[in-house]
């Protein structure tokens, strides 16, 4: 019997516990790398924006448009991506689209004007739309639905390496080799991850029902959105998803950099340090939210905590003048730690539907996430541009108004969630 057990891993029919764990860790590392590089591309503009403003003379409205259209493109293809994931599986869809995103980074890095940069951002946005939801589709095929939330939180935590690298390390790299070559390195990393996914990832584990399911007809694929959109709770989740991630990425992904440069007087490395701290806090927060839900803390309580703390922090930044370096760092880190509750909204939506609708359910909510991000990248540029410049940049009252708008938007979205979306499976 002992010999038979030892032989089992060699014939591959029943892998041992250790080999299963190694395979699971390897899969999570690769999916986390996919999400991490995509996150890097989304959040590095916070470090890059002041450099582009100086080198190319881009106004706040133009900066918002350049980086906001990334999320517009990202959002427009999200529902089709969900259908493709359910129809063809994550491996091919993720590999092809991440290669497209990598190509967009090289176009952006070669841009000499806003038009070229917008083209690169649009290509990157189209391709990056699959990075996170593709990983969630893989997870959904490998773990029971009650473990989806914690597993998704772990994926978010691993992907948090991207925002961390887009802080101080990216700022240092920009100073060393220039922003164009630094951006190209990110694109090369994304291309490598895409090729590894094509080579190594399976759509589902052996024996999964997905292997026996007949391919959907296009009509059935599109019709799968019907049950999702007819579910009342989904619309409440969509309302909060529209604002929850958007108001955070508006600061971490773009406008936090100019705020730190213009109001706090931070240089490139100092900005990178603070944004890295915010991202590291986000990684810890993602781990904490996943652990707390796994330990039985109600998902709704975690969502309420995260939402209310972000609202309160932005309201504080809106109500009072800049409090100095230490207070600013603490406030940014607090938002970073509290922010990953947004992953629980996807788990909340996924729990409402059967496995074959997973991709579409996740992407339906994620469309709201990134539609909100598209708006919240562009609108702050309009707000900041509406105030007369002081010393060549928007005054502090402009940034305080921006934080107030972000807090108010999230508060309204929370009320809608409590009215329609809070009910549903745990």
Would you write up a description of this structure?
It is a single chain. By secondary structure, the protein is mainly alpha-helical. It is built from 22 helices and no strands. α3 (45-56) packs across α16 (232-262) and α20 (342-350) runs antiparallel to α21 (358-385). It is globular and about 60 Å long. It starts with a helix and ends in a 5-residue tail after the last helix. Mean pLDDT is 82; it is low at 1-13.
Name the CATH architecture.
Up-down Bundle
CATH class membership: Mainly Alpha
* H/E element sequence: HHHHHHHHHHHHHHHHHHHHHH
Described by strand count, sense and barrel closure, the largest sheet is: none
Q: What's the arrangement of secondary structure elements?
A:
Elements: H1 2-11, H2 17-43, H3 45-56, H4 60-76, H5 78-88, H6 90-109, H7 114-128, H8 131-140, H9 148-159, H10 161-165, H11 168-177, H12 179-200, H13 209-212, H14 218-223, H15 225-229, H16 232-262, H17 268-294, H18 299-319, H19 325-338, H20 342-350, H21 358-385, H22 396-421
Helix pairs in contact: 2-8, 2-9, 2-12, 3-16, 4-7, 4-21, 5-6, 5-21, 6-7, 6-8, 6-12, 8-9, 8-21, 9-17, 9-20, 11-12, 11-17, 16-17, 16-20, 16-21, 16-22, 17-19, 18-19, 18-20, 18-22, 20-21, 21-22
Features:
mainly alpha; Growth Hormone, Chain: A; 426 residues
In short:
By secondary structure, the protein is an all-alpha fold. It has helices at about 1-10, 15-45, 45-55, 60-75, 80-90, 90-110, 115-130, 130-140, 150-160, 160-165, 170-175, 180-200, 210, 220-225, 225-230, 230-260, 270-295, 300-320, 325-340, 340-350, 360-385, 395-420. Helix 4 (about 60-75) packs parallel to helix 7 (about 115-130) and helix 5 runs antiparallel to helix 21.
């Amino acid at each position: 019997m002992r010999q038979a057990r030892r032989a089992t891993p060699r014939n591959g029919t029943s892998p041992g516990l250790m080999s299963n764990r190694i395979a699971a860790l390897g899969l999570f590392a690769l999916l986390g790398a996919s999400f991490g590089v995509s996150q890097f591309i989304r959040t590095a503009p916070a470090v890059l924006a002041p450099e582009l403003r100086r080198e190319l003379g881009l106004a706040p409205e133009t900066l918002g448009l350049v980086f906001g259209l990334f999320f517009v493109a990202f959002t427009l293809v999200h529902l089709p991506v969900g259908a493709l994931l359910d129809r063809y599986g994550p491996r091919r869809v993720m590999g092809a689209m991440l290669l497209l995103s990598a190509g967009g980074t090289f176009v952006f890095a070669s841009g000499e004007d806003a038009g070229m940069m917008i083209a690169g951002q649009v290509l990157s946005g189209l391709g990056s739309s699959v990075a996170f939801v593709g990983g969630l589709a893989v997870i959904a095929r490998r773990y029971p639905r009650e473990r989806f939330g914690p597993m998704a939180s772990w994926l978010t935590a691993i992907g948090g390496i991207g925002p961390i690298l887009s802080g101080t390390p990216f700022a240092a790299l920009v100073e060393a080799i220039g922003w164009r070559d630094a951006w190209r390195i990110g694109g090369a990393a994304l291309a490598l991850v895409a090729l590894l996914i094509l080579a190594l990832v399976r759509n589902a584990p052996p024996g999964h029902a997905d292997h026996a399911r007949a391919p959907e007809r296009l009509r059935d694929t599109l019709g799968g959105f019907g049950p999702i959109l007819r579910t009342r709770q989904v619309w409440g989740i969509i309302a909060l998803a529209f604002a929850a991630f958007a108001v955070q990425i508006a600061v971490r992904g773009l406008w936090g950099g100019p705020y730190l440069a213009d109001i706090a007087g931070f240089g490139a490395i100092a900005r990178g340090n603070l944004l890295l701290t915010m991202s590291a806090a986000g990684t810890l927060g993602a781990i904490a939210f996943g652990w707390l839900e796994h330990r039985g803390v109600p998902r709704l309580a975690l969502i309420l905590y995260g939402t209310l703390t972000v609202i309160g922090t932005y309201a504080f930044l809106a109500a009072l003048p800049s409090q100095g370096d230490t207070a600013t760092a603490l406030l940014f880190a607090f938002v970073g730690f509290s922010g990953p509750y947004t992953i629980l909204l996807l788990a909340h939506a996924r729990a409402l539907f059967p496995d074959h609708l997973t991709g579409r359910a996740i992407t339906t909510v994620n469309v709201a996430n990134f539609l909100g991000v598209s708006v919240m990248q562009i609108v702050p540029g309009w707000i900041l541009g509406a105030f007369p410049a002081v010393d060549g940049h928007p005054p502090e009252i402009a940034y305080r108004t921006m934080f107030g708008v972000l807090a108010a938007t999230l508060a309204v979205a929370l009320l809608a969630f409590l009215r329609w979306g809070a009910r549903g499976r745990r």
